[in-house]
C-alpha cells in the first residue's frame, strides 16, 4: 500500500510538472527559452538574463490571439517580463519585414543598418530610449491579432521625399535624353554631331539600369522569383 501511494504521488507530481503553468504569470509575459542554458539548480540563462527556476515551466500549448489554446511540442518558457521590460516584435530574430511580409534572408549589411534604439513610453508619459538587444527582452513568438501587418517608421517621410526627388531627377534626365535623341535624328548626316549625341544612347542605357535596380530588383520580387 505504501509503495502504491509513493508511485501515485510521483506520477501526480510529474503530471503536474508537465502541464503546469508559471504561477502568477500571464502567457503573454513569457518567452520560449528552450535554447537557453539550463543550470544545475533548475534556473536558465537566456540571452544574458538569469531566470530563476520558479519562473520557468514546461508548456505543451501556445495561446492564440483570441484566447484559445493550440497544442504544440513541449517546450520551456520563462516569465522574463517580470525580470526585464519586454517588447513584442512581429518578426523572428534575424528576419526583416518588407511590404507586409517577413523574410529570413537578411543580409549582414541590412542587419548593420538596423537602429537598435527604441523610444519607450513609460507609465508617467515620459519617453526614454532603450537598446532592444541589451536593455529589453524581445518577444517574437507570440500570436499576432491579424494576418496582415505593416511597419511604421518615422523615417518614412524622409525616404518618400528621397524617392520623389530621385523620380523627379530621373524624369528630368529622361526628358533631356529624349531631346538629345531628336537633335541627333535631325543632324544624323553630320558625323561630328552624330558622335556627340551618341552620348545620349549611353545615357538612356544607364537610366534603364538605374530604374531596374531601384524599382524592379527588390527583395519581394526576388522572393517571388525563387518561389516559382
UniProtKB/TrEMBL annotation:
Membrane topology note: Multi-pass membrane protein
Tell me which UniProt keywords the record has, alphabetically. Cell membrane, Disulfide bond, G-protein coupled receptor, Glycoprotein, Membrane, Receptor, Signal, Transducer, Transmembrane, Transmembrane helix
Annotated Gene Ontology cellular components are:
plasma membrane
Q: Which residues form the signal peptide?
A: 1-20
Mind telling me which residue stretches traverse the membrane in this protein?
Answer: 162-180, 192-217
GO molecular function (one): G protein-coupled peptide receptor activity
Domain Methuselah N-terminal, by residue range, is 25-159
The answer on whether this UniProt entry bears the keyword Membrane reads yes
Q: Does the keyword NADP apply?
A: no
Compartments it resides in? Cell membrane
Q: Which family does it belong to?
A: Belongs to the G-protein coupled receptor 2 family. Mth subfamily.
UniProt-recorded name of the protein = GM14711
State the organism named in the record. Drosophila sechellia (Fruit fly)
